[in-house]
Amino acid sequence: MDALSAAFVLVADPYVLWVVLASSLFGMFVGAMPGLTATMATALLVPVTFFMPPVPALAAIVSATTMAIFAGDIPAAMLRMPGTPASAAYTDESYAMARKGQLDLNLGTNLVFSVVGGLFGVAVLIVAAPLLAEIALNFSSYEYFWLAALGLSCAVLIATLDPLKGFVSLLLGLAIGTIGIDPAAGFPRFTFGTVELMQGISFIPAMIGLFAISEILRSSVAMEGGFEAVEGKVGSIFKGIGAVARRYWFNVLRGSVIGTVIGALPGAGADIAAWISYAVSKRFSKEPEKFGTGHLEGIVDATSANNSALGGAWIPALVFGIPGDSITAIVIGVLYMKNMNPGPMVFIQNPQFIYAVFLIFILANLLMLPLGWAAIKSAKVILRTPRNVLVPLILIFCVVGSYAMTNSIYGVVVMLAMGIAGWLLEENGFPVAPIILGLVLGEMFEQNFMTSMIKSDGSFLAFFERPIAGVLGGLTVAVWGLFAYKAVRGLSGLRAATA
Amino acid sequence: MTQFTRRGLIASIAAASAAGTLSRESFAQAAYPSRPLTLVVPWGAGGGTDATARIVGALLEKDFGQPVNVVNRTGGSGVVGHSAIATAAPDGYTIGMVTVEITMMHHQGLTELKPTSYAPLALMNEDPPGVQVKGDSPYKTVKDLADAIKAAPAGKFKASGTGQGGIWHLALIGWLQAMGLKPDHVAWVPSNGAAPAMQDLAAGGIDIVTCSVPEGRAMIDAGRAKSLAIMAAERNPMFKDVPTLNEALGINYSVGAWRGIAGPKGLPADVQARLVAGLKKAYESKEFTDFMTNRGFGIKWADPQAFAAFMEDGDQKMGAAMKAAGLAKA
Amino acid sequence: MRANDAVVGVLLIVIAAAMVAYTATFPAFPGQRYGPALFPRLLGAGIILCGAALVVRGLAARRMGEAWIAAGDWTREPGKPLTFALVLACLVGYILVSESLGFIVTAAAILAVLFWRFQVRPLLVLPLAVASSLVVHWFFASLMRVPLPRGILDSIL
Predict the structure, then answer these.
(1) Total domains in the fold of chain B
(2) Is the peptide bond before A54 cis (omega within 30 degrees of 0)?
(3) Inter-chain CB proximity A175 and C80 less than 8 Å
(4) Are residues B230 and B311 in the same domain?
(5) What angle is formed at CA C149 by the lines to CA C146 and CA C152, rounded to 5 degrees?
(6) Which ranges of B65-152 does DSSP label H, i.e. alpha helix?
(7) C145, B35: Cβ pair inside 8 Å?
(8) Whether residue C47 has pLDDT greater than 70
(9) CA A328 vs CA A201, A272, C103: distances in Å
(10) Distance of alpha carbon B71 from alpha carbon B45, whole angstroms
(11) For chain C, what are the domain ranges?
(12) Average pLDDT of chain A?
């Protein structure tokens, strides 16, 4: 328990608390602004966290994302525009409630059950991560190979609406990841003799390009000043929440569980969690006909789910170095920069940092209650921020952030190239999140394959010999079997439809 | 921001006259260094090289009275950062930490850069490799392990610690050759640095890790790995119980990963003299010695001439070893 | 800009084929059956298969009357294509001149151009651009020690 008390000391540092507060306000703002996502908030925070010690750096990311996911609900209800994609699943429902005059009840519900869902996700993280880390200490390259394979498979299977295009994105991400020195033989691939390309496609500038620059390109041609909020004053938002909790307690639990599990699955984050739990809620509701008319039930499920997904996503990120969503993909980059290489070793080497992250998660979720209340109260002012000033400033932040990652103009070049590519891909219905997963997991996948082959003297059987590796391998094969089954069925369905 | 306080002005005049370059031109520029310096590190933030560079940077900053920004230029197995140092303007405002890889990369055909591409300033550190095995390994001494390796067929034992052709790979090759074995008698499993290799060792994926002892410290302290020997002339004061190869096997083989400071070729003589003086002062400071010994890092000094000779010697040894192992580009 | 899936598919196949062809120059891994070329080749094969599937899908959509390439609605609105090009030009410009002009000058110029284009009140454009670039430089270069290029302001910083 020494580590726990050390963690308390780390978190109680006034500097850390100041960082938590400042990044919470930042996260609230970014989340509430339509077009600025929680992932983007994290990407913009990275250059700032670069020179911080590990604990405040992680605190900044945890607090900002926690707030951003909730804050996305505010413009969803007021403007029918989700602040972040995580609120998209129930934006229409929320807006319908607001128009029925139930804006207060809607925002109160969103706030309170975001806090509850968030705390649930953290609780699972606190219990599961150290247990999994103990098991993961015995993982060799075989197990890591299968984990990477499983992560890549999940990304295609559940994380995208169009599996074919999702798969293309993933393959493109993996292909981009092969640029640079190869992880086994040390040979420079696809560098065309340039020194800069030997470092590979730097991950965070690529991320800033894919998520932020492509968004700036889109909004540069959709610039309409500020936003006009719905009529109606915000009153006392906590009225009637007790009744909601009594009526829908099971929905809160179910949403939180689904959210945590989906968050923990690689490649799928808060937005998918919200969509799935909303669909589940409707499927099992006693009154599904009310969904879509401003009914609270589905919102309770989904708003719990998207916040619990945040904590869930940290489980594979911390224990295996496999991101649960695009936010933790960035977190892994930050951990590497702080020499806290994610993996079971970090639980032995720096347990106090891990506990500090847990404490900050709890703190941020509790802080969300007063800050969320304040954000709701001042929402109309926040939403009046002129976008024509904001967008150019974000562009400059992106440039500085990318530059700071490589300490050279190379980062900005990568950012621009990936920004244009991301914009083009999204225009054509290719999701960009799998690209990031491919970039993060590609090296892990290839390196562990190559080292396993060297260790086993070229025998494929060795991949199934160790017990855990065998189970993970079987699971991966099963996932692909399911995928093939679905694809075949989908294809015959398509034929029937076109015939 | 340059501040023209009276004391600053007097100090710069004094420094300029001391360097013997007082003239109208240098009066306008003040004495070197008159603005912030950049110290390029070819490896990632948080690692051993980064930590060493940051303490050197902090001590130089104190001596020079100018900020010294440590800038990580990572990737490409060190090529990117080493290239940034060599191609910087030779004005003394960009220097960098060069590492043992500069004597190895050009043999592999990764770059044209070699030790002579730099103006060497000072050698600061050298760490010898160790021989680490799993915590519950049957081999209690390095002699047990050596005997088992000799008795086993080629390729049976697997070792790791860094990438293919990296410094710890060459350490293994050198050790095997010193025992009269072939360079590939123990198979090398490339890894992404010492930490993942130590984890794979603890997980039972590989048999030996030949990284330096301080790099394996976390696993050793946790009891999941143990160090059987170090390939050095003397024991490390932080790890007194670990014998040298010479003591245990009578093999006199030592090779190490070193770190030094260098600038781009063509540094003006007065700038170089000022930098070497600052580095010497940093090296001799108590802060530096305490910092390095606490982490178990070895300290080793060489002035520019000796450092150049040291690199040249290492370059030839590495070239020969890599050629023998088939790692060098023909 | 939205292209028919068949167009995208053909493009992907061409890129992947070039990638696979290039791996022929990669050396073998000494003593191993698989070398650095294996993984890019597998990926290339995967992309080619997916590209083929996209071509099939795109041709089906084409028969239903989809255009080969359709530009977004905004391209027909006056001024919008220019705005879009201006944002890209600002980024390319930063890459080209920031090293010689320095961060503060380049960033202020970019901000001024974009503020002007996005119709910020004319009197505010310059003060806002200069003040923001100074603040960003102060925060990142002085506090965070990011080595932002100093350029022509080198002597007075």
Answers:
(1) 2
(2) no
(3) no
(4) no
(5) 145
(6) 79-86, 142-151
(7) no
(8) yes
(9) 19, 15, 30
(10) 9
(11) 2-70, 75-156
(12) 86
| pLDDT band, residue A232 (cuts 50/70/90) | low
- DSSP string across A151-191: HHHHHHHHS-SSHHHHHHHHHHHHHHHTSEE-TTT--EES-
Residues whose CB falls within 8 Å of the CB of residue C39, separated by 6 or more in sequence, listed in order: A174, A178, A182, A446, A449
Instruction: Name the token pair of A123.
Output: 């609780």
Domain of residue A370 covers 2-498
Is residue C2 within a helix (H) or strand (E), and if so which, with residue range?
strand C2-3
Amino acid (1-letter code) at residue A21:
L
For residue B4, the model assigns a pLDDT of: 39
Interface with A, mutate which of B80, B101, B206 (most A CBs under 10 A): B80
Structural domain total, chain A: 1
A268 vs B170, higher pLDDT: B170
B55 in a domain, yes or no?
Answer: yes
Q: What is the domain-level CATH number for residue B106?
A: 3.40.190.150
Amino acid of residue C101 = L
Give me the count of residues in chain A.
499
Question: Which stretches of chain B are assigned E, i.e. beta strand?
Answer: 37-41, 68-72, 94-99, 118-127, 130-134, 158-160, 187-188, 208-209, 225-230, 257-264
Q: List the CATH number of the domain containing B228.
A: 3.40.190.10
Cα separation, A46 vs A432, whole angstroms: 20
Mean pLDDT of C125-144: 89
B184 domain-assigned: yes
Burial letters for A91-117: b for 16+ Cβ neighbours within 10 Å, e otherwise? bbbbbbbbeeebbbbbbbbbbbbbbbb
Kindly determine whether residue C157 and residue B326, on different chains, have CB atoms separated by under 8 Å: no
Q: What type of residue is A92?
A: D
Q: Is B266 left (phi over 0), alpha (psi -120 to 50) or beta?
A: left
Closest CA to A277 of A296, A292, A249, A257: A257
SS3 helix, strand, coil % of chain C, rounded to 5?
75, 5, 25
Judgement on whether residues B240 and B285 belong to the same structural domain of the protein: no
Q: Could you identify the residue written with the tokens 């984990």?
A: A147
Shortest distance, CA B54 to any CA of chain A (angstroms): 12
Q: Range of B299's domain?
A: 32-127+257-324
Chain A segment 338-357 residues within 8 A of B by beta carbon are: 338-341, 343-345, 348-349
Locate C46 and state its tokens.
Answer: 């995967």
The residue ranking higher by pLDDT, B304 or A4, is B304
Query: Would you mind telling me the total number of residues written for chain B in this entry?
Result: 330
- Reduced to 3 states (helix: H, G, I; strand: E, B; else coil), residue C121 is coil
Closest CB to C147 among B2, B69, B326: B69
Which residues, in sequence order, are CB contacts of A291 under 8 Å at separation 6+? A93, A281, A282, A285, A297, A298
Q: Does A186 contact B196 at a Cβ distance shorter than 8 Å?
A: no
Nearest by CB to residue B69, choosing from C30, C31, C145, is: C145
pLDDT digit string, tens, across residues B64-108: 988 888 888 887 788 889 999 999 989 999 999 999 999 998 998
CA distances from A253 to A70, A87, A257, A280, A368 (A): 17, 18, 6, 13, 19
**Domain termination site, one of B190, B216, B249:** B249
Residues B187 and B297 in one domain: no
Segments in A236-295 forming alpha helices (H): 241-264, 270-284
Q: What Rg do the C-alpha atoms of chain B give, in angstroms?
A: 22
Question: Contact C145/B184, CB-based, under 8 Å?
Answer: no
* ipTM of model: 0.94
Q: Please report all neighbours of C, defined by 3+ CB atom pairs within 8 A.
A: A, B
The first and second tokens of residue B162, run together, are 């860094």
Distances (CA, A) of A468 to A147, A277, A324, A465: 10, 31, 21, 9
Sign of CA dihedral A154, A338, A414, A43: positive
